[in-house]
Amino acid sequence: MNRFHSWSKGAGLLALIVFLLLGAVTGPTPAAAQGDGEACPALVGSVTGAVRANCVDLGADEACFGDSAMAMFHDSGMAADFAAAGDRVALADVAVLSTGAGNPDDGTWGVVLASANTAALQPVTFALFGDAEISGVSRVEGDAPECEVTNNSGDNLNMRLGPSSTRGVSGLFGNGETLEADARNSIGDWVRVNNRGILGWVYVPLAEVGCDVFNLPAIADDGETPVVVTPLSAITLRTGTPEVAPTCAEAPDGLMIAVGEETEAEVVVNGALLQFQAESAVHITAEFDGPLTLRGLAGRVIIFGTSGDPVYLDDGEVTTIPQVGLSIDGPAAATEFAEDFVVAPVLAEVFLNNTSYDAAVEALTGGEAGGQAACQVTNSSGNSINLRLGPSAGRGIAGLFPSGETLLADARDQYSDWLRVERQGITGWVFADLVDLACDVDALPEAE
Fold first, then answer.
1. 216 contacts 181 by C-beta, under 8 angstroms
2. Which one of 7, 190, 274, 416 has the lowest number of neighbouring Cβ atoms within 10 Å?
3. What's the burial of 415, exposed, middle or buried (CB within 10 Å: 0-12/13-18/19+)?
């Protein structure tokens, strides 16, 4: 069941997106002058009004830039910073959008808001924030790259008459051969190749593709009809920097996609097809060579990976899809309840219900409105760390905290020496001196 209320479509939806993301400001905010425990929540809370003032009433296929944001344009190929919060650009002119991580020292948190139509011509709202980048924002004629496809599977591959394993065989793609691809299907899991004048379709997971598939022109499933690719309908997402934890847990990295009432839409992210049901929203992260992680914030999103059955992601659930680089490489995992995820539901409460940030923290965490909702904890030790059943080295082991992973701590012991975290449904305690922290531990609530 959707824990959020309904929200209106059109301009009302975008206004609430603005409330969610809270991010476009120019110059330092009062957050920069406060202590570490208060700086991050104050940064997020203080910019709400600025975003509402700068980025409401977006037109179709238009982006509004917040602080620490930039774009790369098709015509120049150059990255360009935007001079002030609220600057806008037509998505058709943009190839890449990127934003900067939250920084309480200078009071910035990069945000881009966009309103786009999908291939089904349904309105969809996108919000990119923190250390994040979207490529393939829009495609123009002449964008198609040279794209070599190599068969290193060890066997000959069938070339199909269309982008489906049920279509007839047009020829063979010999093991060890390299061919040129000139097109893809709508979701990018098949590419069309030319083998000595014979055209055929090859299933992408079986071959090595030397380009961003989504830069190829799209062809309908009949294998012949060109598809008009609208902005943000098929994108590549990158979030975060490997082994670098965000400074502010309350100002995370990621992409949020939301659709309004009586609206359904399809968006392809890193090769995964996402089908949005009415009044649905999802938060997505995609670190290079890490999983594509999707967390449901409202309604239902149906996810198709490269194989396997679709996964139904509902409000409050999380699923992952393996990636090689930023391309998915397998089916979506079964969903789990996202008990380790605190920050996005707080922001989504602000976004969907038009609730103030402080009130949302109070309602969803039980903590003080100005206090720390959660703390990102990263194991950079090079070894797995024991998670204990209680805040003491003398307690039994509940599980392991692998090196390189980041978890969210929701509480501390009375001395702030131990932090309570959750990993894959297992709750445990980690010694604070063994991990990297993105918060002031004393600002977390003390566990009862």
1. yes
2. 416
3. exposed
Specify the DSSP class assigned to residue 75: T
Tokens linked to 335: 């969903």
pLDDT means per 10 residues in the chain (448 residues)?
39 43 34 50 65 72 78 65 74 87 82 75 79 84 73 94 90 94 85 91 91 80 70 90 74 86 82 88 90 90 83 90 86 74 62 57 53 71 91 92 84 91 86 86 81
Alpha helix (H) ranges present in 274-413? 343-353, 357-365
CA angle in degrees (0–180, nearest 5) for 416-422-426: 125
CA dihedral 257→39→87→58, nearest 10 degrees, is 40
Both tokens assigned to 383? 């070894």
Q: Does domain 11-138+231-353 have CATH number 2.60.120.1440?
A: yes
- The pLDDT score that the predictor gives to residue 4 is 41
Give me the sign of the Cα torsion angle 210, 211, 213, 216.
negative
Contact 44, 250 (CB under 8 A): yes
Q: Which CATH number describes the domain made up of 148-219?
A: 2.30.30.40
3-state secondary structure at position 443:
helix
Burial class (CB in 10 A: 0-12, 13-18, 19+), 302: middle
Phi, psi of 142, rounded to the nearest 5 degrees: 95, -5
Gap between the Cα atoms of 207 and 241, Å rounded = 28
pLDDT of residue 28: 34
Query: Whole-model pTM?
Result: 0.66
**Topology of the domain covering 374-443:** SH3 type barrels. (2.30.30)
Longest dimension (CA), the chain: 73
